[in-house]
Structures are given as structure tokens and as C-alpha cells.
Amino acid sequence: MSQILEQSTAPLPEKRQLTTVPRFSDRVFRGVVTGGGLSSLVILGLIFSFLAYQGFSVLRSQGLHFITGSTWAIAQDDAGNIIASQTKFGIAAMLIGTILCSIIAVVIAVPISVLSALFLNFYAPPTLKKIMVAVIDLMAAFPSILFGLWGFFVLMPSVEYWAKLLHKYFGFIPFFKMEVPVFTRSPFVAGVVLAVMIIPIITSVSREIFSQTPLDRIQAAYALGANRWGMIKAVALPYGRSGVVGGAMLGLGRAMGETVAVYTVLNIVYQVNWHVLLGAGGNVASMILLKFGDAGPDEIKALMAAGLVLFLLTLIVNSMANFIVKRTGKSGR
Amino acid sequence: MTIISTIKPQKPWLATPKQRLATGSTILVATLATYVLVAITPLKGKLAYFGCFLIIFIVMDFTIHFASRGLSAAKDATARAIVTFGVGLAVLPMVSILVTVFNRGRRGLHWGLFTHDMKMNSVSDPINQGGLLHALTGTVILVVIALVISLPIGVLTALYLTEIKGRFANPIRFLVQAMSGVPSIVAGLFILSAIVYPLTKSYSGLVGSLALSILMIPTIARTSEEVLLLIPNDLREAGVALGGTQWRTVAMVVVPAAKTGLVTAVILGIARIAGETAPIVLLTGGGESVNGNPFSGPMGSLPFYIWKAFSVGSEESITRAWAGIFVLLGIVLVLFVSARFLSERKTSR
């Protein structure tokens, strides 16, 4: 044995270097990919800082009034110069409008979406389920201007009629009260259009959550003699409850940021309006679009600040929603 | 000698013909009862028909099941009826939208639409004059530029989340989710404040595309991430075992394997931004003639065309708006169906 080794005269091949250090190409690759991965952070940071930079002067001069005040008035002297001390920017009216419209939307959309999600998961035959899922996903991809036009020409006449009924029979509830009977283009109409827009989102989130219901628990319920409704009540709903809440918040975030659909159906009037059936209201996004066309430099800064508020609002709502959805998906409860 | 007989498979959970007949006759009777009720009482309108039918049907269904199989079966039947009704409500708007767009858009369609722009016409001119060529070319240019910007960023983000799985993977996943919720008008305002006011000081197609790519990146990133997660780890391990570096493995094995899925991601991203209106209205200026140069001059686009025609509000312009919507919806539908087709083929293989 040892003889053979000694006899071989050919030079041994050089020892291959074993290392765990990545090659140069890999280091470049990892650097580039990490850079690309961090882009979302960079973009969000840039959005925040540029809007804050542009809106800073307005935010500083208006202070807390920007959030709590509800006057939007630019005071000019006779020569057309702007008097800074009397110029008031406050977006409270529009903030209230935003929240009102999106809450109406969520209240209408959540029951419908949850029922659809339950149907798709537990009732629909496989073929029908496939088609319906595609249809609902497609609806989520519809452009918002389409919802706006459809809402204006098709949905609004019906919704006005519903609003009249609500006013007639539930007029004693403060929200449905109104002194002047103007039912056209009200926050209620906008809320219904927004509801149609967010139904696909809430449905698909709830469907995902319900489809994660542990199979053993479903079968345990059936084995104990539950029928389908009993199983849903005892297993699926408790399991998916917080996920549905997350989905609803995701829809809320979407509804808050919606611009064009609201702009087309809503009569934007700059006032605090709690009466959802009255044809006057607005939301922050559509106000920005409305005022932008003929805004002077100061007003544009105020609009940027309003955009910043909207950005932060939707960011918070969305983050909370994602957090809730994710937690539900993980825990088996 | 025993004869082996094949037993016919039984499906006791399916509805028997008798049960189907019972359901069918319940629907029939409920419909008839609704008509009678609406005719003899002061109730009127679609809502009345709808509500009456629902209540009558549920009550009848409940009673039948209660009589035959008891309370819990009756509750089950009611739950089924309500859930089916809910899904009907969810799909109803979609059907209504498609029918409306088809009916109203059809009137404004003619071949000149695709060969003329609005240079010589105003939106209130008779419908057979002018067209939306400028809007179509504008939308194509905007979408292509946005795609060129957001495809690399989106795919790199997805690769970071699935291949590198670095320290920041979870925060970044979270941020991408958050980014997909950024309102479109905020994206427009951001580009306005970061690029238009300090730098270019004028409207152009390019700034519009930049805003669109902010909205497109999260869609591409999330869809690609899902696709890349589906690639079996065996493929990556095989690539590394053959001596490939991570770069070669990703470029030669993982990405080619996920190609169809990445195309789906791109298509869904395009469908997301093709009809985006708010940033376009803020940024592109909306020209009336074909403009092939994204770097200067106002650029028309389909959403802007629809928006403007709708805002003018005359009869012709609204017909124009619906025709524009018809074309836009057609594009979205084609994109969506092709994305579905690609991903179907992928999963069935």
C-alpha cells in the first residue's frame, strides 16, 4: 500500500481551496438585490420627507388647526397679495368626510364579503368556486374611474331612492336626519360606490383566512354531528374572526385613499357634514384633486400637507390591517 | 359461485331529485307570492320585489326543513339561503358594470377612434369625429416606461425576500404591503413635490410614469414573491450542487423556472395602473394630439380622455367617455384573462 504511494511520481494536483466566503459575483449580486429590496423603504421615506418638506411651512403656521379646523380660506388684500395671518387651512371637514364615507363603505361591504367568502369556501362546488374567484379578482382590477362613472350613471338613482327610504323610516337617527331634502350626490352614495369597490378586497382576504381553517377541526365538528352551518358557527367563524377584521381594515384603507370614484359621485362642499344622506361632503383625496387645478403656491403647500396627513392615515390603517391578517394566518388559535 | 357485482358509488351528501324539486318549487312559489304581494300592497320598485322574495323564500325554506328535519336543519337551510344571497349581492355590481359599459360604450365605437386624435375636434363634436389614438399611444408609452422602472425594482424586492432572506426580509415584506396601500393621489403629489416643482417645472409623460411605477412596484413585488416561493427548493439545491454560485443559480435556474409567473406579475401590474386616473390628471397635462415624446409636452392617456370627456358633461362627450371606458375595460379584461391563462397553465402542469 505505502509502496504504491511512493512509486507514483506524477505531481499531486494542487489542493482545491474550500471556503465559505462568497465569490465576488455573489457579493455583487447580493448587494444589488439587497439594494433593490430596500427600495420600498426608500420610496416610502422619500414620499414622507418630500410631502413633509413641502407642507412644512403650512403645518407650522397652522399648527394643530390644520387637523382640527374646518375652514379653508385664503385671505387676499386688494392688490391680490395673500395675507398670511388671516389665511386658514384646516382639513377637519374633509377628514370627517373621509372617515364617514369609508365607514359607510365598510359597514355595507363587510357582511356581503363575509357571506361571499363563506359561500366560496364551504358551499360552492369546485367549478363554480374557480369561476367566482376569478370574477371577484377581476373586479378588484377594475379601474376606479369605471366605478366612478358607473356609480354616477347607474347606481346613483337607485341609491337616492334607498336614501329616501332610510330618511323616511329611520329619520329619527341623527345621522339620517336632514333639514333640506337634497339626496343627490351625498356621502351615502359615495359610501355605496366605495363599498362596491372594496367588496373584492375584503372577500379575497376573508376567503384566504377561512380557507386556512384547520381541516381536522372542520372534520371534528362534522364528526360530532354538526351540519354545515353548525360547523361554520363553531369552527370557521371563531377561527377567521380577526382575519376578517384585518380584511375590513384593508378595505377601509383603500376606501380612505380613493380619489376619482368619490370625486365623480360626491358633491364636494367644504363643510362639516354629519348627515350622510345630505348631498354635500367630501374626502381629503378628492378635495386635493378639486382644489389643485386653480391653487396658488401657498395653497399647493397646504394641499401637500393634506396629502401627508392622508398618507400617514392610510399607512397606519394598512399596517394595522396587515398585522392583524398576518397574526391570524400564523396562529392556529 | 358468487357473482361479483360492482357497487354503484353513492353520494349521499348530494341533493336528491326530490330535494331539488322541493327547492325549485319553493323558488317558484316564492316568486309568484312576491308578484302577488307587490301587486296588492302599496310596495313598489325593484327593492320591494327583492326584499319580499328574500323574506318569503327564507320563511318557506325554513318551514319546509323544520317540518321535515327539525330546527337545526332549518337553521342550516336558512344559512345556506343567506350566504347564497350574499354572494349574489357581491357579483351583481360586476354584472351591472359589464352590461352598462357594453351597452353605453357600443354607441361611441367606430373605427376612426383608433386612427384619429382630438387635435381638430372638441369632445362635444359629433361622435364620429375625432378619436382616441393619442390616448392609446399615451397610455402605452406611460405603461411601458412605468414597467421599465418598476419591473427591476419589483423583481429585485421579490428576490430579496425569497432568495437572500436577509435580516430585513420581514420589515420589507411589511413595507411592500404598506406601499400597496398608498393612495394614488399621494403618489401623484409626491412626484409633484419631488420632481415637477424642483426640477422639471412642466408636465410630461415621464413624471406620470414615475408616479405610476410607485403604484406598480408593490403589485409586481408581491406577485413575483408568491411565484418565486412556489419554485421548489430542490431546484436551488441542485443548482448549487452543480457548482453554481448563488448568482448563477438564481439567474439560470430559479428565474427561468418562474418565467411564466413573472409574466403574470407584469400583466397584473399593468392591469393595476392602466386605468389609474388621479396621478395622471395631476401630472401629465393631457394633450389632445399624438405625442411620442415622454420627456416634454403634455401626454394624453385613456383615463385622462375619459375623465375630461366626463367632466365636460355634454351628451356627445359622455358617449365618448363610455367609449373610452369600453376600450380601457377591454384592455384590462384581455390582460387579466391572459394572466389567468398563464397561471392556470403553470399550475396544471
Could you walk me through the main structural features you see in this protein, from its secondary elements to its overall organization?
The complex is a heterodimer of chains A (333) and B (349). In chain A, helix 5 (92-123) packs antiparallel against helix 10 and helix 6 crosses helix 8. Chain A is built from 13 helices and two strands; from the N terminus they run H-H-H-H-E-E-H-H-H-H-H-H-H-H-H. The relative contact order of chain A is 0.14. Chain A has 333 residues and is mainly alpha-helical. Chain A has one domain: MetI-like (MetI-like fold, Orthogonal Bundle), CATH 1.10.3720. Chain A has helices at 2-7, 24-37, 39-62, 65-68, 92-123, 126-140, 144-170, 187-211, 215-223, 228-257, 260-265, 284-292, 297-330, and strands spanning 72-73, 88-89. Chain A is 71% helix and 1% strand. Chain B is an all-alpha fold and 349 residues long. Chain B folds into two domains: 18-106, no CATH class; 133-348, MetI-like fold (Orthogonal Bundle). Helices cover 74% and strands 0% of the residues of chain B. Chain B has 13 helices and no strands. Chain B has helices at residues 17-40, 46-69, 71-107, 133-164, 169-179, 184-200, 205-230, 233-241, 246-257, 259-274, 278-283, 302-312, 315-348. The longest helix of chain B has 37 residues, at 71-107. Chain B is flat. The two termini of chain B are 47 Å apart. The model of chain B has no long low-confidence stretch (mean pLDDT 87). Classes of the chains: A mainly alpha (333), B mainly alpha (349). The interface between A and B is large, with 93 and 93 residues.
Short synopsis of the structure:
Chain A is mostly helical and 333 residues long. Chain A has helices at 2-7, 24-37, 39-62, 65-68, 92-123, 126-140, 144-170, 187-211, 215-223, 228-257, 260-265, 284-292, 297-330, and strands at residues 72-73, 88-89. Chain A has a single domain (92-330), classed as MetI-like (MetI-like fold, Orthogonal Bundle).
